[in-house]
Amino acid sequence: MPSPLPTVWFTKNINPTLHRVRQVAQSGRYRVLASHTSTDASYLGAAHQGFTEPTPIEERAYLNYLLEKVQENGVQAIVGGRFAALLARHRAELEALGCHLIVPSADPDSYGLCEDKARFYQVFSGRIPMPETRAVRDWAALEDAARELEARHGSACFKPARGIFGIGFRILSQGGDLKHFLGGNNLRMSYAAAELLFRNQALPNMLVMETLPGHEYSIDALARGGELLTGVIRRKVGGLGNVQVAVDLPQLREWTALLARELQMDGLFNAQFKEDTAGVPRLLEVNARASGGLPISAALSGLPLGLLEVDSHFGAALGDLSFAPGRRVTDTQEVVELPVGLN
């Protein structure tokens, strides 16, 4: 018998999907399906039904798989993570089956733009402050750019032009590799160590940047049709644990609204800013996905961001999305029981 509730399917995505699945399932307004390529995914047990996705699989075959599942299960909305740009390109095929598509951006090109930070910086240069940056492809150019930026700003760093979770990011220093290593500081690397690693190597496109020493801000934002509905600005405090505080900075909110409009954001996304030596926030990146810190933003604001994302696509009244800044939170490890017998 068909469910009297709309069926929402969360496809393969990163760990914070647990938070989103729980909110939607526990609202009592939706029947929730969840899938992943691994039976170990933490969020599968939070859905009303969990199952595994096929892998490896080509894009067109994956789309066909989704279309079949939508018809089999009467799915009325897909919250897509895997192949999000593909889904955005084929929105009409899903909508023809009566299925809403919930992905971070309605524009398929926005995903590639957010991933390619060198191109992203060029597109938004002059409209939003960004760190002074050079794109390089070999060690000689990387060192020259770093020395130049270090002379002007006091410190330089580098990272791959494409990447997530800060993988490959390092701050260059004159020495002290052993001290940094033994002290657990894996973000610093000496010029000498970098030369040993990179010389005579064909590097991917790398970005060399001024190091930004000030406060870091992460904005978990919800948009619909390019319009910013709400955004939680959290400042990373540090201290004992991952302490963060909600702040209200109108300029950051204005820039986030610009990003939502230009990138045609249509769901949850994340923007990262960090202050330079003068205290001016500069845009580091935009993630066309919900961030790992989404549960923190929900706790800081009291807003059920995962549920609001789904509600917005079903035309539900969202209510008052404002909140008072100042709340401080930290996160702790959670143990989650995994379901058995998935197929």
- Gap between N and C termini, in Å? 21 Å
> What's the CATH topology label of the largest domain?
D-amino Acid Aminotransferase, Chain A, domain 1
Measured as a percent range, the helix fraction is 25-40%
State the domain count: 3
Write down the Rg: 21 Å
Order of helices and strands: EHEEHEHHEHHEHEEHEHEEEEHEEHHE
Strand order of the largest sheet: 15-14-11-12-13-16
Using the 3D structure, state the CATH architecture of the largest domain.
Answer: 2-Layer Sandwich
Name the structural class: alpha/beta
Strand content: 15-25%
- Quickly count the helices: 12
Shape: globular
Q: Class of the largest domain in CATH?
A: Alpha Beta
Q: What's the number of extended β-strand segments?
A: 16
What number is the mean pLDDT? Answer: 94
Largest sheet: 6 strands, antiparallel
Name of the CATH superfamily of the largest domain: ATP-grasp fold, B domain
Task: Describe the protein.
The chain is an alpha/beta fold. The protein folds into three domains: 7-103, Rossmann fold (3-Layer(aba) Sandwich), CATH 3.40.50.20; 132-210, Dna Ligase, domain 1; 213-329, D-amino Acid Aminotransferase, Chain A, domain 1 (2-Layer Sandwich). It is 32% helix and 25% strand. The chain is built from twelve helices and 16 strands. The chain has helices at 17-26, 59-73, 84-89, 91-95, 108-115, 117-124, 139-153, 177-182, 191-198, 250-262, 294-301, 305-313; strands at 7-10, 31-36, 49-52, 75-79, 100-102, 133-136, 156-160, 170-173, 188-190, 206-210, 216-224, 227-238, 243-246, 268-275, 281-287, 328-329. The protein has a six-stranded antiparallel beta sheet with strand order 15-14-11-12-13-16. Strands 3-2-1-4-5 form a five-stranded parallel beta sheet, sandwiched between helices. A hairpin with a 2-residue loop joins strand 11 and strand 12 (227-238). Helix 1 packs across helix 12. The longest helix is centred in the N-terminal third of the chain and has 15 residues, at 59-73.
